[in-house]
Amino acid sequence: MQVHNTKKRRHLKWMVPATLLAGVMGAVAVMPPPADWSDHLVQALQQYNNRYPQEKVFLHLDKDYYAAGETIWFKGYVTLQGLPSTQATNLYVELLDKNNNIVQKKLFAVFNAGAPGNFELPEAQKPGTYQLRAYTAWMLNFDPAFTYTRTIEIFDPAKKGGPAADSTAADFSVQFFPEGGNLIAGQANTVAFKAIDNNGYPIEVTGAIKDPKNTAIKSVHDGMGTFEITPTGGSDAYQAVVKSAKGQSKTFTLPAVQTTGASLKVFNKGARIFYQAVPANMGDTGLNKLVVIAQMGQQLVYKALLDVSEGRISGFIPADKLPSGILQITLFGNNGAPLAERLAFIRNNDRMEMDVLESDVAREPRKKSTFVLRLPDTLQSNISVAVTDADAVPVDKNAADIVSTLLLTSDIKGYVYNPNWYFRDTNPTTLQALDLVMLTNGWRRFSWEKIAKNEFPDIRYPYEQGVTVKGITTGVSGRPIVGGKLDMIIKLPVDSSSMFASAPIDEKGQFNIANMVFPDTAYIYYQGSDAKKSKDVNVKFDIHFFDRATQVKIPYPLRVPPAVDNSSLKLFLATAAESNKVNRAINNKTVYLQEVNVNAKKIKPEETTEKRYASGMFSGGDGYSFDLTKENPTAYNIFQYLQSKVAGLQITGDLSNPSLSWRGGKPGLYLNEMQTDISMLSTLSINDVALIKVFRPPFMGGFGGANGAIAVYTKKGGDNPPANDPSIKGFQLYKKAGYAVVKTFYSPDYSVKKEVHALPDKRLTLYWNPNLAVDTLTHTAKVEFYNNDFSKRFRVVVQGITDEGTVGKLEQEF
Known about the structure:
The structure is a single chain. The chain is mostly beta strands and about 800 residues long. Among the domains are: about 185-260, Immunoglobulin-like, CATH 2.60.40; about 270-275 and about 290-345, no CATH class; about 475-535, no CATH class; about 630-715, Ferric Hydroxamate Uptake Protein, Chain A, domain 1 (Beta Complex). The strands form 14 sheets. It has a five-stranded mixed sheet. The chain has a five-stranded mixed sheet with strand order 37-42-43-40-41, covered by helices on one side. Strands 1, 3, 4 and 7 form a four-stranded antiparallel sheet that branches. The radius of gyration is 30 Å and the shape is globular. It holds the Pfam family MG2. InterPro entries: MG2.
């Protein structure tokens, strides 16, 4: 076999402190006093890096668009300081609607820096724009702008087309960014600009600056461009008259001209990054001594002292040995205050290279296809693969992949349109456009001013290792128990396993069991005792942040996705609708033959419970029934449980006191068929609920039912506790949510005859493997799958990361 040449990623010496993994983030070695003021900045950066290493997340999805009734398959990747985060265990993923309400959320187990997962979209899922949000607990300590978010569109497969195109995108705005941050009087300044429409997407513009030269401006890529201007001191703010491609003209004001301070020019030549300090006043002795510091991922890579009085105002940073990514270059005055800043992107040939070594493509229905992938010569690769119908599944060209996310967008504050485009090649045009992104976006993972003063973030969320159960115990007097222990019998209904644990109670009355790993939900039967063996102990468990019902705050507004090609969308929705019918048939165990329908109808589980609870006008009815005696619900209350489960029912705001709306009005609320209110239902324990019935408007069973009704029934004898929840004498029950059970991707094997194969095959995702096995001897991996009934072309997308932190993506159509 021919040797496959690969380029290994050049690495800085990332150091993950032991204090991080131990959860003791405040313990840091005392550093010796700095030799001079610039060394203090270096020590501040080093201390920040040791205490607050960067964790990043990326999700690889099987598709870019979804229809109600489908499953969102994804693979989460977690990195720490640019390397696979092999110590990470917990990945939180949420699906948010356009109002930032959580529709679904799950905790996924991370192994070897990867976490496979899925969200099942009910057929009643409301169509519209949603966001996937993924993060670790450690990431919540920092700016929420750096948590992973991705916008997705969910369609109604019953409709033949998507939503109408947004006709409000006529307005536009232009932002101006002087290089280095300041517009310096009497000096030649480079000013970058970015033009966007009112949806946040780039538009092309032309125009002129109102200066003596009437300087022309013109966007060169995705609404971005630059121009040169030499403003005069003491003049009024300059203005730009800009015209959009649609002919609309607007006037914008440039940033104010500065007569003090300094700016910073940067020339990215690839192997070398040249820089030049630009003082506003060369005679200002306060600016004689300057320092330039460059860092990547909180690691110092360059430092130089400048002496303006002696003409030393420039230099270069060697970049050929640095890893690809964003370099932050900051100019400081002799008081340690930052004067100017510039970002530069290091683009070296250190991508994870992959290709298709062999392919045997079968385009006939239900025939087998095989692809052999060739991967880098590394100790370990973490790979995920999706194969979809290349004609029926629309593609979002603006969706970021693992390369553009981990190397580019995860390190800047600001929206980057079509980020993958900047990694297509290394042509000068592409690199110049990438530099425009650097000029028009800011890097703000930390503030130099704060870390120089030893002002560090508060750690509210420790670095997690597994699931933690903790709380506090009190005695009859209400005071914390000192000493003693908490005995627990832990049962897992998902696999009928059980274990015993005992947690000591410390001097503050607190207990803590860490590093627990269990799927689905654990039934924890507990009994506390004090140091004198007395069982008269009250136990209060801490509520984990992920179990709280709170509305998520997204730092950026939700952008309406660009319209999808209508012909492609029609095919996608028609196929998704047919696929939903097949799935319903499988779930109902209905087998369709050519001319005979064999229906094995089984009694719905909720029928028995409904007969026991619902009566009169509350029995039957048009709506939804949820039998909680057959579930292990982990929702905060019934309102969180119902979110996204009922089409048309809007539950928003604080789930302890939510706003309810259905067809423009509030649905009636009933508890055990007696009229009640939100405050009563919101405080009702979900574990005490047997049945929830949601009636579509209008409901005739009680007063105020014109906008539908929600009827809640508490458990009766025989249903509390349920059969799989036996009580244990002397112990109380606490339910703790664990790691989500990830569904297995359905991939039929048509070489074997099965009853289900008589059904039509309408799969749009033909193959999904979040953990593709790699042969470590040949450095190859095999992908095998059977075609559906109609696909003629296939899109193969492979994404992954090596043990050295090198990331890569392969996308190819066959």
